[in-house]
Here is the input.
Amino acid sequence: QVQLVESGGGLVQPGGSLRLSCVGSGSIISINDMGWSRQAPGKEREWVASITRGGSTNYADSVKGRFTISRDNAKNTMYLQMDSLKSEDTAVYYCNPVGSTSWGQGTQVTVSS
Here is the structure.
């Protein structure tokens, strides 16, 4: 059974940083274009960033210049480095293959003073 597990969330002050990890079973991360999405309370889930198998990256305008997506295929792991965090980044963050509608548990990120 294919599985993705997100971790690394927590409570951080505005301006702070967090690094999220997404660990996949089997080769799900290495063979797919992967992405991060997030869902804030009372809002629709939104795409945050994606990375192709070749390493090309794309970001939502709201996080461009502050977030960095990366992958380590050998470790079946994808990361989201989040810097200069803002209160509006508060959400549950999810990882999954691009185009997939299957979601895991996610990891909660709360940006608050």
